[in-house]
Design goal:
This is ABC transporter domain-containing protein. The chain has 413 residues and is of the alpha/beta class. The protein is built from 13 helices and 14 strands. 39% of the residues lie in helices and 21% in strands.
Length: 413
């Protein structure tokens, strides 16, 4: 896999010292990520302090979602490193930009499912669910997600991210499509979590003025971090009154710096170096099986099957129907099948087995084995046709007048 660095930056990357983790919840250094030939993250450096709200601002397509996906381990960097204060998945609550929930489950069932994944007890799930329902103004527990509005679904997604009380909360566009009053209540909740409980929050948003409530702001554009400071420091350094003006000014400075380094001659094609090993994932996930995840999957399937009765009946009765049809078609003896017989064994004077009877063992009674076999075939409802020579028997089989032909040779006993 190719890294997004040319040869000179690659050498600088190797000389970079290991980043310490004193009071920073997340540290990203020299992050590179590409899709095909398109660079998404380019030498990105980011530091998020513990116990603060970090607002990540930037236009669509600048790499915000990709960066968050790399932090939580959904994607891997092509080069660079990510250090987290927490090392386990349970330390992070992640709300993705898209709605990644089961629409058929109710709100209570959704809380139960994700609570079991994080090994929470039923009492803790019930208590946390009620608290989040009040804080986020969620609708009735019994409603399924496809019965509520899109804004309510996003609030349920936020509640799921907060259900297990994580140390680091990562929210990708949590206030999109929400009522302004609800958005403000969410921000008040986030501020309370950081100031009173020491949680760390990373939030991406398109609403620049809304991000003024963050303690730190990072401005992204075209895969790079243009600035990282508090809202007050940004406004002071740019001599602006609004964050929109500051963001515009910083972007204009980036464009001006880029244009000033342009050389009006044809440049050779850049050569990219290959990363020897992929950077290690920031989170530990070495457990292949846990009882909590198994229990969550079983409960989810029970919820879904109970809600879809026709599908449940189909799943139950389909194997039974298949078994019955198979036994009807293939599970019994054939009847009224025509068989050709060529018997060279010496039988009675009449030349047939029909008049021969035995009351003792057939070995003592002198009854030919062929006669015993033919009697058993007649009991099985086979229709026997005798032929005088093998050619007639083979001809009957080839013309589908007989299913098969048998020949009993002399001295079979």
């Amino acid at each position: 896999m190719t890294a997004l660095v040319d040869e000179a930056p690659a050498q600088n990357l190797q000389q970079t010292a290991v980043v310490p983790r004193p009071s920073s919840a997340v540290v990203v250094r020299s992050a590179y990520k590409q899709y095909g030939q398109t660079a998404i993250l380019k030498d990105l450096n980011l530091t998020i302090p513990t116990g603060k709200i970090y607002g990540l601002l930037g236009p669509s397509g600048c790499g915000k979602t990709t960066l968050l996906s790399c932090i939580v381990g959904r994607l891997h960097l092509d080069s660079g490193e990510i250090k987290l204060k927490g090392k386990h998945i349970s330390d992070i609550g992640y709300m993705p930009q898209e709605l990644a929930l089961h629409n058929e489950l109710s709100i209570k069932e959704t809380f139960t499912y994700y609570g079991y994944i994080f090994n929470l007890s039923n009492d803790v799930i019930e208590t946390r669910g009620r608290e989040l329902k009040e804080l986020l103004k969620l609708p009735s527990y019994s409603l399924s997600l496809n019965e509520i509005s899109g804004g309510q679904q996003r609030r349920v997604s936020l509640a799921v991210a907060m259900l297990h009380d994580p140390k680091l909360l990562i929210l990708d566009e949590p206030t999109v499509g929400l009522d302004p009053l609800i958005s403000q209540s969410i921000w008040e909740l986030l501020l309370d979590l950081t100031s009173n409980e020491g949680k760390t929050v990373i939030i991406t948003t398109h609403y620049i003025e809304e991000a003024k409530q963050s303690q730190m702001i990072g401005l992204m554009r075209k895969g790079t971090l243009l600035s990282e400071a508090s809202p007050t420091e940004l406004l002071t350094s740019c001599n602006c009154s609004y964050l929109e003006e500051a963001f515009l000014k910083i972007c204009q400075n980036q464009v001006a710096e880029t244009n000033s380094f342009k050389i009006p001659v044809k440049q050779p094609t850049r050569r990219f170096s290959y990363a020897r090993d992929l950077p290690p994932p920031p989170l530990l996930n070495n457990t292949l099986f846990t009882f909590g995840r198994f229990k969550a999957q079983v409960c989810k399937n029970i919820y879904l099957l109970r809600r879809n009765i026709p599908f449940t009946l189909f799943v139950i009765f389909l194997p039974l129907i298949q078994t019955v049809l198979f036994n009807v078609a293939c599970g019994h003896d054939p009847k009224h099948l025509t068989l050709g017989i060529l018997n060279d064994e010496p039988v009675s004077q009449t030349g047939t087995c029909s008049l021969m009877q035995t009351k003792n063992c057939f070995l003592d009674g002198g009854v030919p084995v062929s006669c015993l076999v033919l009697e058993r075939l007649k009991e099985k409802t086979f229709e026997l046709v005798e032929y005088s020579n093998s050619d007639d028997g083979q001809y009957a089989v080839s013309e589908n007048k007989s299913g098969d032909s048998f020949m009993f040779r002399k001295k079979l006993q």
